[in-house]
Design brief:
By secondary structure, the protein is α/β, with parallel strands linked by helices. It has two domains: 179 residues, Glycogen Phosphorylase B (Rossmann fold); 99 residues, Glycogen Phosphorylase B (Rossmann fold, 3-Layer(aba) Sandwich). It has a seven-stranded parallel sheet, with helices on both faces. Strands 8-9-10 form a three-stranded parallel sheet. Strand 1, helix 1 and strand 2 form a beta-alpha-beta unit. Helix 1 crosses helix 7.
Length: 285
C-alpha cells in the first residue's frame, strides 16, 4: 500500500511523525512524505526533522509565503503532479492548514481516497481560515479519524456517514509521549539561566508565552489589548517569549517591541524575547 502523507507546517509535522514511524514499521506499506512549503523556514525545519526523527520529504514543493488564494492554487497544481507521478492508494492529511485542504481537494478530484487525521474539530468561527479548511476537508474525506469524542459528535451532526468515522486519539500526544524522555535532556533551562544559582534556593519561576495567530498579531488594536494583561503578569513573574520573525515584525510595527526593550533583562521579572525554539527545547521549557 502506497500512502502519500501531505504536510506543510511545523505543527503538522508533529502530528505526522508518529504515523510515519508506524507506517515505516509495517511490511507492505510504502509511506511517502510531501512538504508543501507552507512554512518554509529552513533552519526551523532542519531542527524539527532532527527532533522528531522524520526522514527528509520525498517531495518538497517549496510553495512559500503567498496570498491564501494563490498559495492554494499553486499547492494544488504541484500536488496534482506529485499524485499523478505516484498514484497512491490513499492520501493522508492532518489538521486544518491550507496544505490540508489543497491535498484533500486535489486527491478527490483525481479519485484518490482521502484520510483526514483530527477530523471533526470545530471552533464554530468561520472567520478563521482553519475552520473553513476543517469543514471542507471533512466534507470530502473518505476516512474521518477523530482525536476526541466531540469531533465524532460534530461529524455525525453534520451528516457524515458513521461507518467512515473512527475515534483514534490524539497523535500530538503520541509524539509528546514518545519524546518526553529525550526532551528532558535539553539544555534550554541552563542556556536561559532558569536554573537559579548565585544563592537562589531553586529554579526560577517563569511563564512561557507564544503569540502567532494572524487574527491577533496582524491587528494593532488586538496586540495592544493583549499586551496590557501580559505586562501585568510580567510584573509578578518572568515571561519567556519565543518570537518568530513574522510576529517580531508585527510587534515592531505596533510599538510593542520598544516596550519589550526595557523588560528583557535576566532578572526574575519582565519579558524576555528569545529566538524560536525546536520541539524538544520548547517541550522542556
Amino acid at each position: 500500500m502506497k500512502i502519500l502523507n501531505v504536510v506543510g507546517t511545523r505543527p503538522n509535522f508533529v502530528k505526522i511523525a508518529p504515523l510515519l514511524a508506524e507506517m515505516r514499521a509495517r511490511p507492505g506499506v510504502q509511506p511517502l512524505l510531501v512538504h508543501t512549503g507552507q512554512h518554509h523556514d529552513v533552519e526551523m525545519f532542519d531542527c524539527i526533522f532532527r527532533d522528531l526523527g522524520i526522514p527528509r520529504p520525498d517531495f518538497n514543493l517549496e510553495i512559500g509565503r503567498l496570498s491564501h488564494a494563490v498559495q492554494a492554487a499553486e499547492m494544488r497544481r504541484c500536488l496534482e503532479w506529485v499524485m499523478k507521478q505516484e498514484w497512491p492508494d490513499v492520501v493522508v492529511v492532518v489538521g486544518d492548514m491550507n496544505s490540508t485542504l489543497a491535498a484533500a481537494l486535489t486527491a478527490v478530484t483525481l479519485g484518490i481516497p482521502v484520510a483526514h487525521v483530527e477530523a471533526g474539530l470545530r471552533s464554530f468561527d468561520r472567520t478563521m481560515p482553519e475552520e473553513v479548511n476543517r469543514v471542507v476537508t471533512d466534507a470530502v474525506a473518505d476516512l474521518l479519524l477523530a482525536s476526541e469524542p466531540s469531533g465524532m459528535a460534530n461529524l455525525v451532526r453534520e451528516g457524515r456517514p458513521r461507518e467512515r468515522i473512527f475515534l483514534v486519539g490524539n497523535v500530538m500526544i503520541d509524539t509528546l509521549q514518545r519524546l518526553r524522555a529525550l526532551a528532558r535532556r535539553s539544555s534550554i533551562l541552563d542556556d536561559l539561566g532558569l536554573r537559579g544559582g548565585n544563592g537562589s534556593p531553586g529554579p526560577l519561576r517563569y511563564a512561557v508565552m507564544t503569540l502567532h495567530r494572524p487574527a491577533l498579531v496582524d491587528r494593532p488594536e488586538a496586540v495592544r489589548k493583549i499586551w496590557e494583561p501580559v505586562q501585568e503578569i510580567a510584573r509578578e513573574i518572568l515571561i519567556i517569549f519565543p518570537v518568530h520573525l513574522r510576529t517580531r515584525n508585527r510587534l515592531e510595527e505596533t510599538g510593542v517591541r520598544s516596550i519589550l526593550a526595557g523588560e528583557s533583562g535576566r532578572g526574575t521579572r519582565g519579558i524576555r524575547m528569545i529566538p524560536p525554539l525546536g520541539y524538544l527545547q520548547f517541550l522542556r521549557l
